[in-house]
Amino acid sequence: MRKFLLFFVLFLLACAPLQLVTPPTFVIKPVEKELPVSTAKFIGEFKVSFYWIVKEEDYSGKRTTPLYLNDGKLLGYFPYKFVRDFKIESCAQLKDGRLISWLKNQGRAKIVDKFLGHGHFLIPLKSLATDPTVIPLGTRVFLPSACKVKMGEKFHSGIFYTHDIGSEIIGKKIDIFLGEKENIRYFSSTNIKSGQKVDVYLLE
């Protein structure tokens, strides 16, 4: 009798319809609640770095290193470390208040009213440098982690724009333009730190 009951129970289980279960999180990448639009496409985790405006007033030392403008004229002589950092960050402010952008393809500086990226003006805390083979220039992207960045009484929207490229920005990397270097303080309470990875979504 017991064998019959056991067989009957097993038979019922075998005939019962299969139930769908929610896939584990490692299978389906969840879209966080902060996502501003439903058409966002998750493209992976990207390593973060930052770049900012280099200020001549922060540098001392002998003014022995020349900088030339895009028209070939000499802009002036500056401390070596200032010129070195300017070429890395690509944007600087001179002591007299003028703004200059570094034109990598020409190896020259250009006096500007707004800092230049690669075909776009740079917007502090909104512009990114990316590898254009991974994220095309002019793309709007969403970083859910940035929604936790508090700036005064408001929080960042999490939306950025790919306005620039960089020789060191290859593959899954993003370089956030801070504007003033001190703006990095806004990211201190989040997981968006240099060298760490964040989720990146493409927005349509």
UniProtKB/TrEMBL annotation:
Recorded hits in Gene3D superfamilies, A to Z, give: RlpA-like domain
PROSITE patterns tied to this protein: PROKAR_LIPOPROTEIN
- Domain of life, per lineage: Bacteria
Statement: the UniProt record of this protein carries the keyword Signal = yes
GO MF term set: hydrolase activity, hydrolyzing O-glycosyl compounds
Q: Which residues form the signal peptide?
A: 1-20
The name this protein carries in UniProt is 3D domain-containing protein
| Organism, scientific name | candidate division WOR-3 bacterium
